[in-house]
Structures are given as C-alpha cells and as structure tokens.
Give the backbone structure.
Amino acid sequence: MLTTTNNSTTTSRTLTSKQLPKATPWVVAVASIIVAIIISFIAFGGFNIPVVAVLAGLINVVAVFAISASYEGRRKATDRVATTVVTSSFILACVPLISLLWMTISKGGAAISFDLLSRTMLGMKGVLDQQYVAGEATIAGGFYHAIVGTVLITAMACIISIPIGVLTAIYLVEYAEKNRLGKAITFLVDVMTGIPSIVAGLFAFALFSTIAGFIMPDAAGIAKTGFTAAVALSVLMIPIVVRNTEEILRLVPMDLREASYALGVPKWKTIVKIVLPTSVSGILSGITIAIARVIGETAPIMVTAGFAKALNWNLFSGWMSTLPTFIYDSQLRPVSPGDAALASSERAWAAALVLVALVMLLNLLARVIAKVLAPKAGR
Amino acid sequence: MSKQIDIKDLDIFYGDFRAVDGVQMQIKPRSVTALIGPSGCGKSTVLRTLNRMHEVIPGASVSGQVLMDGNDIYGAGVDPVNVRREVGMVFQRANPFPTMSIKENVLAGVRLNSRRMTKSEADDLTERALRGANLWNEVKDRLSLPGSGLSGGQQQRLCIARAIAVEPEVLLMDEPCSALDPISTLAIEDLINDLKDQYTVVIVTHNMQQAARVSDKTAFFNIAGTGKPGKLIEFNETSTIFSNPEKEETENYISGRFG
C-alpha cells in the first residue's frame, strides 16, 4: 500500500513535454532577416548585405534561445541554439562556393561561344578587340590551343604518375612491412605532398634545361615544352596518387589475401587478381581526384611550358598553353590596352568556365566509376 | 588423396615471443582432428603452421618439423605456394572474394593457378565442389550472382567449396562455425563428416560439443599464463578426452573448472 501511494505521488514526471511547432526555426529565421533589414535601413540608411547577414544571425540565435527557453525549457533551448549555429556555419561555408560558381557561370556563360572553343590566339591583334568592344565585330581569338594543351599535358602527367604512384602504393602496402625503405618512402611522399607547385615547376625546368644543355649547349631554352610541364605536374600528382591508393589498399581485408594464399595462389597474382579488383573503384576515384587537383595548376605550367598563342600538338617541342595559363595571361596582359581589355577578360572567363566544367566532370566521373566498379552484394 | 601429418618438436614464434612450445602430434589420413583450448593458447597458430599461412604475419617464424607423408614442409627449397595447394584452409570469418560471382569464387583457386579449363570442365568442377560443400541445391540457379549476397552459413560453405575445388590433400578449418547459427553449424558439421572420407581434416573449435561430435582425435592446448607459450597438454582419442582424460588439466577444462 505504501509503495503504491509513493508511486502515485512521484508520477508528476511525465514523458510528454511542450514542443514548439516544427516550422518555428524557419519562421524565426525569416523574421530575424526582416528585422535585420529594417535595422539596416534605420541605422545605415540602406540595404547593406554584410550588416544584414551578421545582424540576422545574431538576432536569430538570441530569438531562438529566448522563445525556446520560455516555452520548452533550457535543455531544448540549448539544443536549438546548437542546431542554429551549426546550420548557419554550413550556409556560411556554402557562400564562397556558390558565389564562385555563380560568377564563373554568369560571366563565362555570357562570353562563351563555339568560336572561342574552336579558335586559337594566333594572329590576334589589339585592333580586333577594339572593334569588338566598339560593337563593330564579333569577339576574335579563342582558346582551342589551351584546351588541347590542358588535355595533352594532363594526360602525359597521368601516364607518368599513375603507374609510379599505384606501384609505389602497392609496394608500401604489400611488400614494405614497415621496413626502413617503406618508412623512408612514406616520409618522402609526405614531404612531396607539401611542395609548393611553383617549386615543382622550377625543378622540372631546371632538370630539363640541364639535360638539354648537355645535348645542345647553346639552346637550353628548348627545355620549355609540354613534356617538362607534364613532369612538373607529375611531381605534384604522384604523392596524391600514392596516398589515395595506399589508403584504399589498406582497406582491403587481410582475410581476402589469406583466402587467396590458402588456395595456393602466389603473392603477385593475389595482388593482381584479388586485391586490385576489390579496390579498383577506390583507386580510380583517387586518381581522378589527383587529376582534378593538378589540372588547374598555373605556376608550374608558366615556368615549364611558357605561353603559346598557337595550337601545338607536340608535347616534346615548343611552348604550350593550358587553360589556367591562358586565363592568367589574358587577365594580366590583355591583347589590347584600355577599354578593349574587356575582350581579353571575357575570353578568360569563358576559359575559366571550361576549366571548372572539366574539373566538375572529372569529379562526376570519379563518382560514376566508384559506383559502377564497386563490389556488389546482389541477391 | 589424403596425407598423414607428423608434427615434431614444433616451436612457433612471433618475433622473439615464443607462442607455442614443443608440439608433437601425429595426424592420421582420412580423419578429423580437433584442436581445443582456451583463447590465446596457440591452437589457431598451430593450425596455420600446417599450410605455412603462419608466415604471412610479419616477423613470424617456426622451428621443428612438419612432415606431410614424410616430406618436411619447412625443408630447404620448399615453396609455401606449393604447400598451400596441397593444404586448403577455411577461415573463421567467411571470406568469399567480393568481386567474383558464386561460380567464379568456386573456380578461383584453379583459375588463379593458371590451369586452363574448358567450359564443361569448369561447370563440372563447380557442381562437384558445390555438391561437396552441400551448397549446390541452394545456389544452382544463381551461380552468376555475387558470392557476398549469400547468407553467412552459405558463404562459409562457399568458402569450403572453394577450398575443396583445388583438390587439396588436407583441409584446415579455423573455427569455421563460430559466426554461424545452429542450423548452419549442423550443415557444416555434417559436411565435415562427409569430407573425412577423402581428406585429412584439422579443425580448431571453441565449442567442445562440436569437437566431441565431429572429431576422431582431439588435442587439448593450454597456456600457463599471459606471456607464456602455449603447450599441447593432451592428444588422444576424442572419446577418451571427453570421458576419461589422462591429464587433470584436460579434465578441468572439459568440465568447465579452471585453475
């Protein structure tokens, strides 16, 4: 009897509690923004985006806490404030990304045309740009040569660095067994990851100048070729490929290797037929990320491949342009000075759009590859 | 198609650490031998030395002899790859190759060892191995689906089929049922009973009822304390071990009394 009465007195604790309607945070957020805009008009005499954003954020946090604390209690109010802060941080992080994409798409999209994609800068004169800006002609020039240069140099960089990178990773994971050579390689790869890209470019240029100097002492300048640029990019790309591949290979369960050994399969065949197929999707997406990383490099290309105006399909002789160096060159040294520099700027934005599209396409490709080749658990 | 294994003065090391000390055993062909004992006593380690899987772990080494029909598998010039073709192994966790279909999994050992097969030979072998592993009826309609889509017990039997498809002389099983439900366990125990007509089977198990059910002879390993090497305490007929063991230590372990 005593226990039952005790129980009935302590049932003041209930499982239900007051809850704000689901839409509350959004309503509060919109209200905060409106209040912030009003304050901005009163205090600063106009609509000022940074002021409104900061004010809206502060008002929102305070309002959410006040409303929630008065109705739902302190614990839930704290929870809501944390949610608000996390969400705002996410939105803040998206701002530069979205504005960058917006800039590139709006400016590049307005400028881009099939002519720009299919012509080079060969025979470009300031007069042509002046005519364009004056509205007397369509835009002249183009960056077909830079697209070709980007594709060729990046492809050559891949040909050099993918085998070296993947094989190094295989050595580290399958053979090194934490020996000294393995530790040394890991250390060097870590150091290489941190090399500034301009240093990689200077290294490749110095290397090939020296080699060219031996062959033709008078013409060290012939070292400026697309191939030199590809080597510079490889220096940047190899550590990324090694790191990514190593991580993926370490994810392959030891069980699978042992299962293969237990069938009497030699080690090299276990690696080729079991370990690599199991991890191929991860390796390929790692490689794609490495490509996306180096395709936008500017500095090492400038010091190794120069700036070409004309189309050059030969990686081993003559200067080459890539999209990043084309953008840099157009923006820094417009074909025509003064108002007509606008034409160069437009070409640069169009090239930037193509470059961003290429990188996004590569990332998309990495996802598709990962999805298609991943081991399936069908039933 | 079955070999006798003689283990003589086998010491097993991980680096400088002596994991197992002085094992003497004679495993008869066409029999099932169970290795039992507490965790860490070295029974899996002993099992792994029988097909030189032990040395896959960096720093591991062995001294002593393991004779397979008189040939020392640790002798000079012996290629561990050749040993493993004679001695198959099934692991604690079912590990079918995730990139391969059921059929490819069964044929993996043969294919990867570069033996060429015609399509009908391959079909024959697949059916024989899967029947041998008691799995044929369950998977015959979906041989081209991934092996990882099967249930845990089916995956383990697929691994057994894969192991027997290379036609080894000896089959090692490292706690093959520890992750399985009682029904799958029963299926595998029945299978072990059938397998001993053709193979020498050595099985590590934590389940003493299982050892009593499936094995002809049982080896009991024990460890004096952490950091000490595991030792073979008693090796005897299974019926003797479980009804009338010679050593008190065995008696204590079997009956659930320790120390």
User: Anything to note?
Assistant: Residues 157 and 289 of chain A are 14 Å apart (CA to CA). DSSP finds 15 helices and no strands in chain A. The interface with chain B takes residues 177-178, 253, 255-266, 269-270, 273-274, 277-278, 375-379 of chain A (CB under 8 Å). Chain A has a mean pLDDT of 88.
